[in-house]
Amino acid sequence: MSLIQPSVAANVFYGYANDTVPSSVSRVEMIGTNAVITSGYGLTLYLKSSASIELVDLQTDIVSFQYQLSYGLALTEMFVLPGDSESLLLSQYYTQGTPSERGVLLLHSGDVVRTVLPYGMSLIQPSVASNVFYGYANDGVPSLVSRVEMIGTNAVITSGFGLTLDLEPEIRSGENLLFFSSGEVVDPEAMIRLASFPGLSQPPSVSQPLNHIWPDMASGRVYYFVANSATFAAYSLNNYQLTGTVRVPGIFGSPKQLVRWGSNGLAFATTGGQLFSIQSSIVPTNQPAELVVSQTTPSSTSLLADFTVSILVSNRGPGVATGVVAYDLLPTGMRFVSASCTQGDVSTNGGALTASLGTLNAGATAQVSILLRPDAIGSSFNYVRVAANEPDPVMINNVASQPIAIATQFAQNLPLYIGDLAYDPPRGRVFAAVQSAGAYSNSIVQINPLTGSIEQSLHTAFEPGKIAITSDSQFLYVGTTQEPIVARVDIQAWTNDLTFGLGNDFNGISYIVGDFAPLPGQPHSIAVSMHTWYGYYTPQLAIFDDGVKRTNTLLEGGGGTYFIQASPNASMLYVINADAAPGFAIDPLTFIPYAIDASGIGAAQTKIAGYASDFKIEDKRLITESGQVINLENYTPQGTFPVAGLVAPALEDGLVYFLVQSGSVGTPA
Predict the structure, then answer these.
(1) Where is 214: in which H helix or E strand?
(2) What is the mean pLDDT of residues 376-384?
(3) Which of 141, 310, 439, 663 could be cross-linked to 643 through a Cys-Cys bond (beta carbons 3.0 to 4.6 Å apart)?
(4) Average pLDDT, the chain
(5) Which of 163, 180, 209 corresponds to the end of one domain?
(6) pLDDT tens across 441-462, in order?
């Protein structure tokens, strides 16, 4: 080794021995006091006629080892492990039956070290790590992409269904990406399908793959020999689009065994016994630019608490990077709020964000900021990848993936048997009616929703039921589960301000609150939906002013509840009559808006049948717990969400939250 050169690693260098013939190139890794040398002498061959594998010394043409496959088996794929020239990983298939896949073997110097997998994964490809490889099981439907990590004598497998089309006849790896014959691009480390190259038809499935893919990560291109044609196609890893084609005349049979060589060369063999070697301008030769991406995210966050993902893209050179693009696959369970970048522009499409950053000179950086809001408790990750038009000599640092845990931060862990909840926006606090069992029984408590801590409690002489807060946050009205009364709490003073009675029905059974509707702008007035505590009989609807009932009320037989809410200007009371008793109920299972006047409940404005559940209103929309939506401007139904459950509109964000009790949460709505 008279000639030596550094590598990017401090403990590895390259050497060239030009004092002998033939000369040899070596990689030398300094480990402690040892030097591990890998020289470019060996060529591993598979002899199809004898189903054997041989290692040939290229200096002497001597076979240094031979491995014979078992009877009835043939080779599917093999590769030398990165950084370990003596170790060979191979997959094999059964030639005379199904399922054909017969597992993966690890050889070292011609001897079987172990069976890595006894089945599956007929197609295998290397990763950048010597103990990790990627596999594809194309012997069944659905097909399966897997990442296999060899740890001692164990194999840890991570799999991802639905990432590719089924029955792919060929895969090729390029650093940490997998490329498929159909044109699909998969990141097997993150188990994400990134894109699909356009214009590629899927070749027919065969037991022995036709090698017509060649990823050239250093040039930022992936080359295909398009099936059933005589055309090379080059695709960019920047935007996954076609960058050029070359047609090759005079081909006999079908192309196979595609490889890249030199600075701009491509070579392939054909089934007609030909070997073609060409040089083409579809292989870029411009100066490379090494892009690097990193991201900063919180390791954990809280439900509905906005946070920022900061992405930094830098160009280490030596060349200028043009057409720089950052692709971000947004984490699941998160809502996109906004995004910005220090140069270029940002666009979103579904769950993906694209930042087109333009040109980055050598040494320059650009930053992308993404504001997200967690919508679901659980764990997720943010995945970002960068690319440019220029070749990138090191693509392993073009991707960054960061896990994010989404959780509540509740410190309170006491069991609370809650009858109802109300939120006070000015104070940012939740009030809860705690019933007779457990801690804080028969009381109203004030909760900090960010921490879950109970800040104060107010004991009641009864078991509280429904509660409602006035629009000015002055009062909290409290109903009971059995007593015919309503209590009013002065929130600022935290005292019981008023108690008034609801009376009994004509059978002498006490009324209790079924629902509340404080009149906006009138904190001393509240609409009360009441029914008997036993059987929910004879529902009644009335408006009280400081405990005094207005004259005009609604009353009917049967049993059920009026669900109610007042309009923002207190001129209308929206009612859904859930009383379905035949012969007793007036307008059963119907939505009715009633006018409100000084005498109480006024005339009905319209009637729409087919409504029976509680609801919330916001921004002139009424949304029921059955998922139904009514436009309150013209009283017309607008559709139905495919879910049912407790509802909380957030229409300022274009969303409606459901605590889903039935229906499919996966249905877009």
Answers:
(1) strand 213-216
(2) 83
(3) 663
(4) 84
(5) 209
(6) 999 999 988 778 899 999 999 9
Report which of 353, 369, 279, 284 is spatially closest to residue 319, judged by C-alpha positions.
284
Query: Has residue 359 been placed in a domain?
Result: yes
Torsion of CA 666, 667, 668, 669, to 10 degrees: -110
Considering 388, 407, 426, which residue would you say is the last residue of a domain?
407
In a domain, 226, yes or no: no
**Nearest to residue 540, comparing CAs of 525, 551, 527, 529?**
529
If you write DSSP's letter for every residue of 123-184 in order, what string do you get? EEEE-SSTTEEEEEE-SSSS-EEEEEEEETTEEEEEEEETSS-SS-S-EEEETTEEEETTSE
Q: Which two tokens stand for residue 289?
A: 């630019």
Domain tally, the chain: 4
Strand partners, 78: 90
Query: Looking at the chain, how many residues does it have?
Result: 669
Q: Report pLDDT digits (tens) over 555-581.
A: 887 777 889 999 999 999 999 988 777
| Shared-domain flag, residues 417 and 385 | no
Mapping DSSP to helix (H, G, I), strand (E, B) and coil, where does residue 590 land? strand
- Determine the structural domain holding residue 328 and report its residue range: 289-407
The two structure tokens encoding residue 419: 């009858």
Q: Assess whether 25 and 90 both reside in one domain.
A: no
Q: How far apart are CA 470 and CA 536, in angstroms?
A: 26
Report which of residues 509 and 101 the model is more confident about.
509
Distances in Å between the Cα of 179 and the Cα atoms of 18, 153, 205, 247 are 38, 29, 16, 22
pTM of the model as a whole: 0.61
DSSP code per residue over 503-534: -B-TTSPBEEEEEEEEETTEEEEEEEEEEETT
Do 319 and 373 share a structural domain? yes
Mean pLDDT of 380-409: 84
Which residue is listed with tokens 């669900």? 563
Same structural domain, 395 and 298: yes
Reported as a pLDDT band with limits 50, 70 and 90, residue 144 is: confident
d(CA 148, CA 150): 6
Instruction: Give the separation between CA 591 and CA 606, rounded to whole angstroms.
Output: 8
**Domain shared by 469 and 403, yes or no:** no
d(CA 94, CA 105): 14
Instruction: Give the bridge partners for 223, in sequence order.
Output: 214, 234
- Verify cis geometry, omega within 30 degrees of 0, for the bond prior to 142: yes
Within-domain flag for 165: yes
CATH number of the domain that residue 113 is part of: 2.130.10.10
Read off the CATH number of the domain in which 450 is found: 2.110.10.10
Q: Are 573 and 593 in contact (CB under 8 A)?
A: yes
Mean pLDDT throughout 497-503?
94
**Residues 217, 221, 222, 226, Cα dihedral to 10°:** -160
Sheet holding 171-174, edge to edge: 171-174, 177-180, 184-187, 192-196
What is d(CA 550, CA 111) in angstroms, rounded to the nearest whole number? Answer: 95
Annotate 455-488 with DSSP letters as a single string.
EEEEE-SS-EEEEEE-TTS-EEEEEESSSSEEEE
Task: Look at residue 167 and tell me if it is in a domain.
Answer: yes
Same domain, 196 and 294: no
Q: Can you tell me whether residue 41 is helix, strand or coil?
A: coil
Q: Are residues 318 and 397 in the same domain?
A: yes
Q: Is the pLDDT of residue 291 over 60?
A: yes
CB 268 within 8 A of CB 257: yes
